[in-house]
Amino acid sequence: MRKEEKPNLLLHVCCAPCSPYVVELLSKEFHVTAYFYDPNIHPEEEYRFRLEEMKKMCAGMGLGIIEAEYDPDRWFQLVEGHEKDPEKGERCGICFRMRLEQAAKFAGENGFSAFATALSVSPHKDAKAINRIGREIGNAHGVVFLEADFKKKNGFKISVEKGRELGLKRQDYCGCVFSA
Hints:
By secondary structure, the protein is α/β, with parallel strands linked by helices. The chain has a single domain, classed as Rossmann fold, CATH 3.40.50. 44% of the residues lie in helices and 12% in strands.
């Protein structure tokens, strides 16, 4: 009997330490490809460091990774006027929308069955807002968004432990220059 092929899932990832648990969990049901699109990360040296850590994690987990364009100018334009917003405020919603929009577009154009994001594993991120935005964007692009709150069931704690096991450096801010 032939084993069923898993559907392809594009997983938007933001940093390596937050991703191992999400990748392991989703890999049970999907063939996962990481998608690194994070123009919110500043300075550029930090962006490059996080990208290299993500590549290291993906190599260690046998996971493919796609690096999207680093476009911080567009990000700054979108969040203009929201520099003083608190964490989980409007600026975060704008940032989620920008990144998920790009992931949905790529997923749709490249034959992925669905897309998701590892963002909700962070205790600093609003999973309800992420899921609402992802669902809206998925519907607009005709691509299924896999809704989740990956921090549940100790997801964040497990990711921290797995990141340590993989030798990944954890950052002390989300990447946004205004949250540093």
